[in-house]
Write a sequence for this structure.
């Protein structure tokens, strides 16, 4: 009313009631009439009263009156006095009933609309906050962050001007269409403001997520899509309810910015308030968005059951109001939470069936990319690698089309492809994907950003050169120590990764040192019963087992089992893994009945949780096969090994390095059954596979080399056995291996050296020395070396 009294016309245009309502809701205020002499200061007062954002309006009638008195006092212009007198009586009703609106009166000065959102003052605040963290990667983050913010703000101003000119200058679109576009841009500016607010109050978490949070700002191009904008749910018709909804939606914007900044707990507190207050408004679109964000934030805090509950509510509300984009997000969230985080993969598949049509209905490449990414990750977890590969490639293609090559999302998609290729044993391809991911991430985030460390670890796991792998691991550790300090869980993760690299190279003492340092950090920071400890405990158990320290190995695996059962429940796949490792130790200790019980339980859990064809079953199947073989049940052992091989070849392909040990096991059974030709072929196939995937100097190649040498001995070809056995001994001497394995190679080589022709390598003194070393190792092994000890002692007695 005051605006109309001053200007002689209403603030909003619209040829119909519907058009007028759209204009009001979008906040499109008329330009000042031509020739108007209303001062800019008064217009500013009026526009503040019409503000879109309730908190930006005058806090009270008295505050408005005081400002008007201040403006009137110096000049006492007659028109102003008259205008104010005419309008004051109706001001309260006009301000209270008007929706949150924004000044869009001219097609120039759009950049001015972002004052206080992203301008020089805000830039200085962000700079001070980020550099004030003194993080090693803060300067590099700021260097990459500011251009992204500038680009987004400039693009917003361009879109704003274009939307205005299309109506007021070119007459290409209606006022209603301009209002839709301006409303969309207003939402974008609110999200930009909330993001900058987080950056201006940055801590270490915010700096770590800073570039990604800005990169995740909603795309401005959608504000040109009038067809899509028309399908969006309109605010409530009741202006009082509309104001309340608008205020709560502002809080959702704030919570979303906190989530993008990595502040999940803070964001959850804000969105919980929205859910509580919004329930009484009975406006389903608001609740759909609030439940969606609540589910995503609960997921971020690790409350997966709570996340699933909120996401189900969000999906139901979104479908009811035909909010396809929100329904697609909610269903994909359920795929991730249920199918991946909680390992309820059948439920994850069920939600994929909902997500697929919803992602199509959403009508954006982003929604389809999210669908394919979710499908790919779930298929990957289910060991459906071909399906996973096709889906993840589709996600990568769509993301490249949407975001361009320098977006952080591209690096993540490339890294996913690299890990998947590694899982399939495609190491050259995995290296290519990881190198591309590394280059992309270094460009987007900087070379010292902690996210770069994970890609370095992934790359270290697939390069063939040991020195290169070690350098990559050292660099990853250095980045994390510099970024987080020496006692952080991610530093522990790097130490664990470096330990695994050393373990694969047979450097058991070095691996143990890395693992012990990782365990000490996690125990200090996370506590002695945190589930993150179990990976390192399992690795320490494997090292101790290979060192022949079986009681110590049992202790590590038992502790991991106890933690996993308490944290994850008795039927989680990680529990099965701990049980299988305990069974392996029990078998080496000669506790065969206990070993069988442990392995059967591990197999049952894995089959139930993962399905009967998941490659993780191979560990328990192999252990059960070994147990049956030790007990002389060769047919049972053969069946178990054959099932393990079929599962591995289907999931991993016939040339994966993990297939090789199963081929060796099958060769050992064939050898025991007297099928020497078949046994030789199996060992040779395993040897070629390992040489091609891991390299000829990898310590794992000693396994088929020893097996092949033993078969050649029984074929009466000791001279032909010598090269394989000498090579196996060199590998097992250079690298630290389980004492029983070294003893087996010693004894096989002893037999070959004794039986070889005098002109073809015979060396009987060395043969007795090697046999004695084998005997001593099996004496030290106690009960687990009893059978082998009897054989070598008999041989020494016969070859004195």
């Amino acid at each position: 009313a005051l605006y109309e009294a001053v200007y002689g016309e209403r603030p909003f245009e619209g040829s119909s009631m519907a058009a007028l309502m759209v204009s009001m809701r979008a906040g499109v205020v008329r330009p000042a009439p031509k020739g108007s002499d209303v001062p800019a200061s008064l217009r500013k007062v009026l526009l503040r009263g019409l503000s879109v954002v309730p908190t930006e309006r005058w806090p009270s009638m008295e505050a408005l009156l005081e400002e008007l008195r201040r403006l009137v006092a110096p000049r006492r212009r007659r028109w102003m006095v008259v205008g104010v007198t005419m309008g004051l009586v109706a001001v309260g009703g006009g301000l209270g009933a008007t929706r949150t609106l924004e000044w869009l009166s001219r097609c120039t000065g759009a950049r001015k609309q972002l004052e206080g959102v992203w301008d020089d003052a805000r830039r200085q605040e962000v700079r001070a906050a980020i550099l004030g963290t003194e993080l090693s990667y803060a300067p590099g983050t700021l260097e990459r962050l500011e251009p992204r913010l500038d680009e987004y703000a400039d693009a917003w101003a361009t879109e704003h001007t274009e939307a205005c000119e299309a109506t007021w200058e070119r007459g290409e679109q209606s006022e209603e269409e301009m209002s839709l576009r301006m409303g969309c841009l207003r939402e974008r500016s609110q999200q930009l403001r909330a993001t900058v607010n987080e950056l201006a109050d940055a801590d270490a978490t915010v700096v770590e997520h800073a570039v990604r949070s800005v990169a995740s700002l909603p795309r401005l191009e959608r504000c040109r899509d009038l067809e899509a904008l028309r399908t969006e749910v309109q605010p409530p018709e009741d202006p009082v309810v509309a104001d309340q909804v608008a205020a709560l939606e502002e809080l959702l914007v704030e919570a979303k910015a906190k989530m993008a900044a990595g502040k999940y707990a803070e964001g959850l507190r804000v969105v919980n308030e929205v859910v509580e207050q919004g329930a009484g408004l009975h406006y389903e679109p608001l609740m759909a968005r609030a439940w969606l964000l609540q589910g995503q934030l609960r997921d971020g805090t690790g409350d997966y059951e709570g996340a699933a509950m909120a996401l189900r509510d969000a999906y139901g509300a979104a479908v009811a109001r035909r909010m396809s984009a929100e329904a697609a997000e909610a269903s994909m969230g359920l795929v991730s939470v249920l199918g991946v985080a909680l390992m309820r993969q059948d439920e994850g598949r069920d939600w994929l069936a909902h997500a697929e049509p919803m992602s199509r209905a959403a009508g954006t490449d982003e929604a389809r990319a999210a669908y394919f990414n979710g499908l790919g990750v779930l298929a990957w977890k289910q060991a459906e690698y071909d399906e996973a590969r096709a889906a993840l490639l589709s996600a990568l293609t769509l993301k490249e089309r949407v975001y361009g090559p320098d977006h952080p999302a591209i690096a993540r998609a490339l890294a996913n492809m690299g890990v998947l290729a590694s899982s399939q044993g495609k190491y050259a391809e995995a290296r290519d994907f990881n190198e591309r991911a590394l280059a992309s991430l270094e460009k987007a985030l900087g070379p010292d950003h902690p996210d770069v460390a994970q890609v370095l670890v992934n790359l270290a796991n697939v390069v063939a050169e040991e020195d290169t792998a070690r350098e990559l691991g050292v660099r990853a550790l250095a980045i994390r120590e510099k970024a987080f300090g020496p006692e952080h869980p991610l530093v522990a993760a790097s130490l664990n990764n470096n330990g695994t690299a050393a373990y694969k190279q047979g450097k058991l003492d070095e691996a143990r040192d890395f693992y012990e340092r990782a365990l000490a950090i996690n125990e200090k920071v996370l506590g002695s019963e945190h589930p993150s400890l179990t990976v390192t405990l399992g690795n320490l158990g494997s090292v101790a087992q290979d060192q022949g320290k079986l009681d110590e190995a049992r202790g590590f695996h038992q502790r991991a089992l106890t933690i996993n059962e308490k944290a994850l429940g008795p039927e989680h796949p990680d529990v099965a893994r701990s049980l299988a490792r305990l069974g392996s130790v029990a078998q080496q200790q000669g506790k065969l009945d206990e070993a069988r019980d442990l392995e059967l339980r591990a197999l049952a859990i894995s089959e139930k949780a993962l399905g009967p064809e998941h490659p993780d079953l191979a560990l328990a199947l192999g252990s059960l096969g070994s147990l049956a073989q030790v007990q002389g049940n060769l047919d049972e052992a053969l069946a178990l090994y054959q099932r393990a091989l079929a599962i591995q070849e289907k999931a991993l392909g016939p040339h994966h390095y993990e297939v090789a040990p199963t081929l060796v096991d099958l060769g050992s059974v064939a050898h025991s059954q007297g099928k020497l030709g078949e046994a030789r072929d199996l060992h040779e196939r395993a040897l070629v596979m390992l040489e091609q995937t891991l390299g000829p100097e990898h310590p794992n190649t000693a396994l088929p080399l020893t097996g092949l040498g033993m078969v050649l001995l029984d074929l009466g070809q000791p001279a032909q056995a010598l090269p394989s056995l000498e090579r196996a001994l060199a590998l097992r001497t250079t690298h630290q291996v389980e004492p029983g394995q070294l003893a087996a190679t010693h004894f096989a080589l002893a037999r070959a050296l004794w039986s070889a022709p005098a002109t073809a390598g015979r060396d009987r003194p060395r043969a007795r020395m090697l046999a004695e070393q084998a005997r001593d190792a099996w004496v030290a092994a106690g009960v687990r070396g009893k059978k082998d000890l009897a054989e070598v002692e008999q041989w020494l007695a016969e070859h004195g």
Summary: Residues 238-363 form a domain with the Serine Threonine Protein Phosphatase 5, Tetratricopeptide repeat fold (CATH 1.25.40.10). The chain is about 75% helix and 0% strand. Residues 74-105 have pLDDT under 50 and may be disordered.
